[in-house]
């Protein structure tokens, strides 16, 4: 196990917990697990933050494509059509393999950082007419509880100073740049909408500033 170099965001210490071969139906990756201690409990009451890096190809040969993806059990595992999360993840994996190199940074920040049970409670409120932002606020959370220091720290650990970031969320671009990672290009992560999550995308665009096509 190794500690992060001094180039990491100030005060951020991470440990690489594992590094293993990871074949997928998109192509060959390596999977690395990372942890960082927290000085106070996060919104889920945890004192440690974890993330996984799926690394494909030679990430030092050219500026790699990076996708910061927040865990979505309902979408990623159960193929929920309430959101576009699984479709974005699959798009990122396919795009990275096609490009020849890149990293998916998979953060354990379910429900925009509020945790699984709170996310399901938010679903219930959405069934009664709230949108995703209104539901989070009614439960006592911010519209988006995520922070992206850990992905930046992992990129510093891996000695990746510049990236092509695959995202629709300008806050991810700003977060990486704030923590010393140059974003040379933003690649769209927009996927074809399903009728079941059209409103979800509208709220992302209208209330959260995501860079999505108006429909």
Automatic annotation (TrEMBL):
Its cofactor is Zn(2+). Residues 16-187 form the GTP cyclohydrolase II domain. InterPro entries: GTP_cyclohydro_II (IPR032677), RibA (IPR000926), RibA-like_sf (IPR036144). SUPFAM superfamilies: RibA-like. Pathway: Cofactor biosynthesis; riboflavin biosynthesis; 5-amino-6-(D-ribitylamino)uracil from GTP: step 1/4. It comes from the Bacteria. Pfam families: GTP_cyclohydro2. Keywords: GTP-binding, Hydrolase, Metal-binding, Nucleotide-binding, Riboflavin biosynthesis, Zinc. One of its GO terms (biological process) is riboflavin biosynthetic process. GTP binds at residues 67-71, 88, 110-112, 132, 167, 172. GO terms for molecular function: GTP binding; GTP cyclohydrolase II activity; zinc ion binding. GO terms for cellular component: cytosol. It catalyses: GTP + 4 H2O = 2,5-diamino-6-hydroxy-4-(5-phosphoribosylamino)-pyrimidine + formate + 2 phosphate + 3 H(+). Catalyzes the conversion of GTP to 2,5-diamino-6-ribosylamino-4(3H)-pyrimidinone 5'-phosphate (DARP), formate and pyrophosphate. Belongs to the GTP cyclohydrolase II family. This is GTP cyclohydrolase-2. It comes from Terriglobus saanensis (strain ATCC BAA-1853 / DSM 23119 / SP1PR4). The lineage of its organism: Bacteria, Pseudomonadati, Acidobacteriota, Terriglobia, Terriglobales. The gene is ribA.
């Amino acid at each position: 196990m190794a500690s992060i170099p001094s180039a990491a965001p100030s005060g951020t210490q991470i440990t690489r917990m594992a590094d293993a071969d990871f074949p997928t139906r998109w192509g060959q990756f390596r999977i690395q697990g990372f942890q960082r201690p927290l000085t106070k409990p996060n919104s889920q009451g945890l004192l440690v933050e974890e993330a996984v890096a799926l690394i494909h190809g030679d990430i030092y040969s050219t500026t790699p494509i990076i996708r910061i993806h927040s865990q979505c059990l309902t979408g990623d595992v159960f193929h929920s059509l309430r959101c576009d999360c699984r479709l974005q993840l699959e798009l990122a994996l396919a795009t990275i393999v096609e490009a020849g190199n890149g990293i998916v940074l998979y953060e354990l920040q379910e429900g925009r950082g509020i945790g699984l049970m709170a996310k399901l409670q938010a679903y219930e409120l959405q069934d009664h007419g709230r949108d995703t932002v209104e539901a989070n606020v009614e439960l006592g959370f911010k519209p988006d509880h995520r922070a992206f220091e850990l992905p930046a720290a992992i990129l510093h650990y891996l000695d990746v100073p510049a990236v092509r970031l695959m995202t629709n969320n300008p806050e991810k671009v700003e977060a990486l740049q704030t923590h010393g990672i140059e974003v040379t290009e933003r690649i769209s992560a927009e996927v074809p909408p399903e009728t079941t999550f059209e409103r979800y995308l509208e709220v992302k665009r209208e209330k959260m500033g995501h860079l999505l096509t108006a429909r």
